[in-house]
Design brief:
alpha+beta, 3-stranded antiparallel beta sheet
């Protein structure tokens, strides 16, 4: 796999300071931001919101990193991340947005702050917490000084270690106060598999000391027009790993339902395009992640470097390449490579046009682009005739009939993409 700038910089630091040897002896290694800055900016080298963002040398050695102060970090085999329990098959609760607000549009949420403000003004946060909440806090602040216990060691033999944070910096996307509670919310405008507990734990410790009210940590994702609130509690305030899910609630403000009749109309009126010769058949099973990538590109003005995507979002290089190639297959994303800046991805003109549309119209156009390809067209016709998705063997046969030259094993692997995209389309419809 290709390496990121962070991969190269951290490998140089590990070699220069014998970090692996120090961890083997002491159990951890403390490194100053000034040392990191000599290779690359520390702010780019230390913020890994998801496991997938960790540099290769960290992943290979089961290492993670935490801030120890405003100017230092600690590296060790710390259990820093929490997995998100996925329940995307459950139907979200429909909610209406307020008629008296024109400056926020639920049709056009391309940043974490806009998604959070929309959720607040729609009353979702009040509904989740079952009391009237007011927006009171956001932004960067000092953690102050506190000790905490964190699980460390290999996954088969975890032990606890006491760490100290001394006036490190933490940030709150938004905090909301009610009569009895104070909710800290971390927001991601993409679907994620996990998150760094630090994002909730550090501000939780700060505000637990300042307030008499119950402090409630919440992780919010906004992806494909769905707001998903994961409400947690720390069973032991001094234990970083005592994070426990209390409840999860999903909401949708913008109706995006599509009728089966719409699908039939597209199938009847679409022209089948020949398969592109220079673009491989996609191997990107989750269409939602392609949409997330389109959103990131659109909100960034249409172009982002491959390195930035893997640093800022829940993608590694392989996933970035797979999902960008799938976007290219649909005519929405283009790859740009240069010696000076490396690989970047940009929205095509069709990609910009698609992302400017309201969600329902955008989804219909995306379905049209997908069903222009013969295998997806045939698979959807199969579904409508049989009321179930074709098997991987049946999809493989469709690919063979379409003249795709690849091994049977490769066809069956690619069939997972066909199944995934088909399910995305079906899940948009109002019919069971």
């Amino acid at each position: 796999m290709a390496k990121t700038k962070n991969d190269d910089a951290w490998e140089a630091l590990f070699e220069e300071y014998n970090i692996l040897q120090a961890i083997a002896i002491e159990g951890f290694y403390k490194i100053d931001a000034s040392a990191i800055n000599k290779k690359r900016e520390a702010r780019l080298m230390t913020k890994f919101d998801h496991l997938i963002n960790l540099p290769e040398i960290f992943r290979d050695n089961d290492l993670t990193i935490l801030p120890a102060s405003r100017s230092s970090y600690i590296i060790g085999t710390f259990d820093c991340y929490a997995k998100i329990q996925q329940d995307n098959d459950s139907n979200p609760t429909g909610f209406n947005f307020r008629d008296d607000i024109e400056s926020i549009s639920p049709d056009n949420l391309y940043s974490e702050s806009s998604a959070l403000l929309c959720a607040y003004h729609a009353g979702l946060i009040t509904d989740v917490l079952e009391e009237k909440m007011r927006f009171t806090v956001f932004g960067r602040m000092s953690t102050g000084t506190f000790d905490f216990s964190i699980a460390t060691g290999n996954k088969n033999a975890l032990a606890n270690q006491i760490l100290k944070v001394d006036k490190a910096q933490c940030e709150i996307d938004g905090a909301f106060e009610g009569e009895t509670s104070f909710a800290i919310i971390e927001v991601k405008n993409e679907e994620v598999e996990d998150f760094h507990i630090r994002q909730l734990y550090f501000p939780y410790r700060v505000w637990r000391e300042r307030l008499n009210k119950k402090v409630i940590p919440i992780f919010l994702t906004y992806s494909n027009e769905i707001f998903t609130f994961s409400v947690y509690e720390f069973e032991n305030p001094n234990d970083y790993n005592s994070l426990t899910l209390v409840k999860r609630k999903r909401y949708q403000l913008v109706p995006t339902e599509i009728e089966i009749a719409d699908i039939r109309h597209i199938l009847s009126n679409n022209s089948i395009k020949p398969e592109p010769k220079s673009i491989p058949f996609p191997q990107a099973d989750r269409l939602e992640r392609i949409i997330d990538l389109l959103v990131h590109l659109y909100s960034a003005g249409g172009i982002i470097s491959q390195d930035d995507i893997t640093t800022r979002y829940a993608f590694n290089i392989r996933q970035t390449q797979y999902y960008a190639k799938a976007g290219n297959y649909l005519g929405l994303i283009e790859r740009i490579a240069s010696k000076g800046t490396g690989v970047s991805y940009t929205l095509t003109e069709s990609g910009f046009t698609l992302m400017q549309k309201a969600p329902r119209a955008r989804n219909l156009d995306l379905i049209k682009l997908i069903l222009q390809h013969s295998v997806f067209h045939d698979a959807m016709e199969y579904y409508l005739s049989h009321s179930c998705c074709p098997t991987s063997h049946e999809i493989s046969r469709m690919m063979q009939q379409a003249g795709m030259i690849m091994s049977k094993e490769t066809r069956e692997r690619r069939s997972q993409t066909v199944t995934g995209w088909l399910k995305w389309i079906i899940n948009l419809t109002t019919e069971e």
